[in-house]
UniProtKB/TrEMBL annotation:
Pfam families: Phosphodiest. This is Alkaline phosphatase family protein. PANTHER family: BIS(5'-ADENOSYL)-TRIPHOSPHATASE (PTHR10151:SF120), ECTONUCLEOTIDE PYROPHOSPHATASE/PHOSPHODIESTERASE (PTHR10151). It comes from Nocardioides panacihumi.
Length: 382
């Protein structure tokens, strides 16, 4: 377990607050608040008949503070409690699974946007999934939603119809009743109906802010307009809920804008040609790379990446990253999914591969690393 959100010495990174104020602590805290189970986490939430947990993809705490004028309702709730943290890496698939399982990434095994399928030369894309990877085998732990259901709590997921039954939904959220709702009005109505059940947890998701940030950047007018729409959605949801039901608004991660001049494409520049040496497979994402190495090449790969990237990133071996507590306790099955070498970006730096991940090169906003803008998430209760 880690303490409350704190900067890691010498990096400007924020350590994940597992067991205290991380995404994995939210569902156990709600269970205690609605009287289902005794406290099992350091996160304490106000008691209530029921909870609606509204997760806004990409709404980092720093971003909400910075652009408070565009979100008057949500920003009015800032300051009541300190921010929480995402896990590592600060990316959607990892975060949503931590929320749904109440486990750190090293326990649930969704360790990034892409990660190696052990024993193969293939990557699992945790958002798109692969039909030949069973999500129940990849993530075999009982989810927190299943645990709450077994204790008599009504648990409902309200999300787009296209996400029902997907690999990530099965890995992270199985055990809940799924209500498909594609439009804001549908989602609010579904959440209000589900939360009428006593001692219930209703989970509501909106991914539009994250999409807008990736496409246009967090400093764009498009992102600010989308933030205003999210703010209105949250306020409308609060007004539609009875006062006996608490609304908890949080995020899975924040985001930074990474300009072209702050990126390295390992496939296009002479400076980076050595970064392919000893590398069997490149995984993760632009802000947090998993490097899977040929046998005996780990030390050489780590040394080369440290030399080429310098102060633009922290480069650690798998054992060093685990030793820093980045992933929490790591189970044996999860160990080979982590890169032999881990690369976490500083500032607005990003490692692009146009050969392996051409789509990432088109994105403006990115996330995945341990900077405050990416790691700190709001925990807003009304």
């Amino acid at each position: 377990m880690s303490g409350s959100p704190a900067a890691a010495p010498g990096t400007g990174f924020v350590a994940p607050a597992y067991g205290v104020r991380s995404l994995g602590d939210v569902v156990p805290a709600v269970a205690t608040a609605v009287g289902t189970s005794p406290a099992s986490t350091g996160l304490v939430l106000p008691e209530a008949a029921s909870y609606v947990v509204f997760l806004v993809d990409g709404l980092g705490a720093r971003l909400l503070e910075r652009y408070a004028h565009a979100a008057p309702y949500l920003s009015s709730l800032l300051g009541a409690r300190p921010p929480g943290t995402a896990g590592v890496p600060s990316t959607t698939a990892t975060s949503l699974t931590s929320l749904g399982t109440a486990l750190a990434p090293g326990g649930h095994g969704i360790v990034g946007f892409t990660s190696r399928v052990p024993g193969t030369d293939r990557l699992l894309n945790a958002l798109q999934w692969s039909k030949d990877v069973d999500p129940h085998e990849w993530q075999p732990n009982k989810t927190a939603f299943q645990t709450l259901r077994s204790l008599g709590t009504t648990v409902t997921v309200v999300n787009k119809r296209e996400f029902q039954g997907t690999g990530l939904t099965e890995a992270a959220q199985r055990g809940a009743e799924y209500v498909g709702a594609d439009r804001v009005g549908e989602r609010i109505a579904a959440a209000v109906a589900a939360s009428a059940e006593p001692r219930s947890l209703t989970y509501l998701y909106d991914g539009d802010l994250d999409w807008t940030g990736h496409r246009y950047g967090i400093s764009s007018s498009q992102w600010l307009q989308q933030l205003s729409m999210i703010d209105a959605e949250a306020e409308q949801l609060r007004e539609a809920l009875p006062r006996s039901v608490r609304l908890l608004v949080l995020a899975d991660h924040g985001m930074i804008d990474s300009p072209t001049e702050s990126r390295i494409d390992i496939d296009e520049h002479p400076e980076t040609s050595s970064l392919r040496d000893g590398l069997a497979l490149l995984g993760g994402e632009a802000r947090f790379r998993h490097l899977y190495c040929h046998r005996g090449a780990v030390d050489g790969v780590a040394a080369t990446w440290r030399e080429v990237l310098g102060e633009r990133a922290t480069v650690l071996t798998r054992e060093e990253a685990i030793g820093r507590g980045w992933f929490g306790p790591v189970s044996p099955a999860v160990l080979p999914r982590l890169g032999d070498v881990i690369v976490a970006s500083h500032g607005d730096f990003a490692v692009i591969s146009t050969a392996n991940f051409p789509y990432e090169a088109t994105l403006v906003g990115l996330h995945g690393s341990l900077t405050p803008d990416e790691m700190l998430i709001p925990l807003l209760v009304d």
